[in-house]
Amino acid sequence: MLEIAMAALGITYYALALLAGAREGGPESIHDSKNKLLRAALILFYVVTGYYVGGQIYASRSLRITTLEPSQTGLLFSSFTRFHRTEHRLVTYVASPVGWQNTGISLRLGDRVLVTAAGRVNIAISEVISASQRRLAIESARDSQGLHPDMFTDHELSLITPRYDWTGPDGYGNYRGAYPGRDTTLAFRDAPFGALIGQIVPEGASPVRPIGRPFLIGKRLETTIDTSGNLWLNVNDVGYYSNKPADYASTWYRDNVGFFVVTLFITR
Question: Nearest-CA neighbor of 50 among 39, 42, 61?
Fold first, then answer.
């Protein structure tokens, strides 16, 4: 934009000089000055148009779309656009509820990032299956007795309702486990159970306990990155014991299903 401002300033100076000269030369000089001003305005128009068209061509040449195999990573695609002195990066990643996962998305100190997430996960699918089996058993018993299979009592409803149903990126809320104290083993104790969380991890490192500085993402997060490294994502679940190996938490992630589609718009 500095180049355009300088060009406009030059045209303005040129116009003032022409008008000053035209006043001394009479009507013919004024007519000639108008033609020169028109040519100068056209030149400025062509310069500005060329600047933006050229910039868009350059930006489109910088667009990269990369598709990777699911076995390698959950990265769907990454587009990169550079125009003038600002870089914009759009990245989409599919996060599964399987523990900490390296997205391979490199973030730098000072990057401005908008993160949005959508999707559904269940962190206790075994409970959903058990609740469904109890419902089928109740329906079968009612049918054999000649009763309407769908007229459940309050007690029966409590038996067929899973403790944890499907949830979005904001999670369930507080942990309601059967074992007191297990909430202290959440991947991030200050975030809702089942919520999408993340952290920036230096290249070559992994988020073992102590985890460091995780943060809540949920459905939407807009922030400025205060450290450099790769973005790791997780669905907040239990099993992170300080006296156990880092992969011990996988025991609690085996009955998790679903995914979150995470989109990052990065400006640097």
Answer: 42
- What pLDDT digit, counting tens, does each position of 20-72 carry? 554 555 555 555 655 665 666 566 655 655 565 555 555 544 445 454 544 44
Distance of alpha carbon 100 from alpha carbon 93, whole angstroms: 14
Strand ranges for the chain from DSSP E: 75-83, 86-95, 101-107, 112-122, 196-201, 215-216, 220-224, 229-235, 257-267
* pLDDT at residue number 74: 54
Task: Report the 3 state secondary structure along 82-98.
Answer: EECCEEEEEEEEEECCC
Buried b (16+ CB within 10 A) or exposed e, 5-16: eeeeeebeeeee
- What integer best gives the mean pLDDT of the chain? 75
Whether 163 and 129 have beta carbons less than 8 Å apart is answered as no
Local confidence band at 15 (pLDDT 50, 70, 90 cut-offs)? low
Neighbour count for residue 245 (Cβ, 10 Å): 10
Residue 117 near residue 196, CB atoms below 8 Å: yes
Helix (H, G, I), strand (E, B) or coil at 66: coil
Residue 199 sits at φ, ψ, to 5 deg, of -165, 155
pTM greater than the 0.70 cutoff: no
Cβ–Cβ under 8 Å, residues 218 and 203? no
